[in-house]
Amino acid sequence: MNPNSSERLEQAAPGLFSRRQYWAKRFGTAPFLPLSRDEMASLGWESCDIILITGDAYIDHPSFGMALIGRLLEAQGFRVGIIAQPDWRDVSDFQRLGRPNLFFGVTAGNMDSMVNRYTADRKLRSDDAYTPGGEGGRRPDRAVVVYAQRAREAFKRVPIIIGGIEASLRRSAHYDYWSDNVRRSIVADSKADLLLYGNAERAIVELAHRLAAGEMIQQIDDLRGSALLRSQLPEGWSEIDATTLEGEQPPDAPRITFHQRPKGADRQRQWVRLPGYDQVANDPLLYAHASRLLHLETNPGNARVLVQRHGKRDLWINPPPLPLTTAELDRIYELPYSRAPHPGYAGHKIPAWEMIRFSVNIMRGCFGGCTFCSITEHEGRIIQNRSPASILREIATIRDQTPGFTGIISDLGGPTANMYQMRCREAAIETACRRLSCIFPEICPQLETSHQQLTQLYRNARAVSGVKRILIASGVRYDLAIRDPDYVRELVTHHVGGYLKIAPEHTEAAPLRLMMKPPIDRYDRFKELFERYSREAGKEQYLIPYFIAAHPGSSDRDMLQLALWLKRNQLRPDQVQAFLPTPLALASTMYHTQRNPLQPIRRGGDSLTIPSGLNQRRLQKAFLRYHDPANHALLREALQRMGRSDLIGRGAEALVPPGVHNQPQRGGGAVPKGVRKDRVGGKRGKRLYR
């Protein structure tokens, strides 16, 4: 078997567990990483070497970032404490474990705090799945910035290291949907010493050992997957000027430009200068240009350092982290987790834990490149796989150690369900590749797409003693799956619990191209296979397709066509989502700039259709729920405006029924049933409904 992608690239990195353990290993393994001084004392600790601050409740399970990072650092010999969901209004809560000997590690948690707290319509959510009892309001807006500042107040001169999804997606100047402007790198806003982005295991292990060996945090500027602010740039490097749009000559020519792509240059001693913060904040085209360049420099095999001016200093973004090998990933997931919430939460359910406690993560990364998704920007395009043996051991551990296990594994997957063990056929091609997706616009011929190993894993997993069912809940890339009907047969026959969620996202070609999603006919083909194998298995099973409203490039007419497709297919979506622009995503760049960063950005180019206003976003969501009477008035008005009144009626071809007009008043002005009294008499009083 050829070495997988992560093993090819990892040859340039020291083994994750190859360093000598820190002296504090003598204290042994903690049953739970301590949340209090009393727990520290019970372990014989006088202090913590590292304190991790998180916006989530502490669940000692590898699906939760702080537990995984904490146990990994513990395996390196360090004493690790956790401050979970601190009261950010009071600095004393950040002092509860004392001063860390090495550093504070700060994260918002498993989710971006703004996505966690607000809906796509910027409304405050009432709950939080990562909090005991699902209680909302236990973390601040922009949690990384707030926590980092409070940690700095708590203990001066202790290094502050930020990471996790929130920091990762804000590593450069970025569009912020909630404030509707371009914000600085989170390194500048948080005043952190260092940011670790992406899968940060390699970086945080090296960082901890170097700090423990006496290096100053200001000296550590070369970690892959890190970003920091610098007052001076190093000597002996060459600069690639990318501060102007393609086709425009930089003012200080003859500097080398990004578009000249000099041959034979030492990429490891080059940086690409992006347009500075002030430039991208004031010029949407330069923002789109910078976004495009950042995404072109994300392959660990060829990415260069990125530099972006922020005021009087430069943001320095090192190339992405090298992926983990299968052996390293196995060991990380088999560290001595308690696999339960901290005992301090006894009596309180934590929804996120209830959802994942019987599931198994088998891989990381995604090469799909969907423009609205942040997985690629965070975890990368190279698939990192666990071994089948490690996965089967975790299933047995769940069976033996997790209370309430009934024999059903609720999910077996990762960012996607069916990219396990897929890789580029040629190492040289993979290292040089700069494609944003391996499967769009078509599946790359160099991509190994066999599902054979995954199919065998499913069969072995459901053969584990005590296991009744292995379910695959969602995340199937159907454009890959249809290449292997045997996989689809295995999936449908044994691993669908009545419903399978799947995400075509749209039906129309224009928005699908901007999403980097396959044409709808690939979904139709998967549906045919799904239904055929369901019949053969004698099972009544259903696909639950997901769609996005208000995505950049999706017009009202596109949404109308999608609604008609739903009606023809007798689909009535219950829960629908409107596009939420998350930092760094390419679709968020489209939303902000009205330009397509999948292509070179030039002045005078075509603008995209952007459904950005609240009323239009609500209308596009209403098209997805065309069957809901609450949306009929809004849809009737839109159909009349679009010249499609033929779709209003009682016939089979109609999308919505006709309205009920006001009846003649009786008894001194009675209002017909169903018409709100407070609206009658206005300009639209004849067509107002609940």
Integer average pLDDT: 92
Strand order of the largest sheet: 3-1-4-5-8-9-13-12-11-10
By CATH, the topology of the domain at 15-223 is: Rossmann fold
Radius of gyration: 27 Å
Q: Can you count the beta strands?
A: 25
- Terminus-to-terminus distance: 63 Å
Strand content: 5-15%
| CATH architecture identity of the domain at 15-223 | 3-Layer(aba) Sandwich
Q: What structural class is derived from the secondary structure elements?
A: alpha/beta
The biggest beta sheet, please?
Answer: 10 strands, mixed
Q: Residue share in helices?
A: 25-40%
Supply the number of helical segments: 24
Say which CATH homologous superfamily of the domain at 15-223 is assigned.
Cobalamin-binding domain
From the spread of the alpha carbons, the general shape counts as: globular
- Name the CATH class of the domain at 15-223: Alpha Beta
What ranges have pLDDT less than 50 throughout 5 or more consecutive residues? 662-690
Structural notes for this entry:
The protein is of the alpha/beta class and 690 residues long. Among the domains are: 15-223, Cobalamin-binding domain (Rossmann fold); 231-320, no CATH class; 660-690, no CATH class. 31% of the residues lie in helices and 13% in strands. The strands form 8 sheets. The protein has a 10-stranded mixed beta sheet with strand order 3-1-4-5-8-9-13-12-11-10, with helices on both faces. Strands 23-24-25 form a 3-stranded parallel beta sheet. Helix 10 (284-296) packs antiparallel against helix 22 (586-593) and helix 16 (452-462) runs parallel beside helix 18 (485-494). The longest helix is centred in the C-terminal third of the chain and has 17 residues, at 520-536. The radius of gyration is 27 Å and the shape is globular. Residues 662-690 have low confidence and may be disordered.
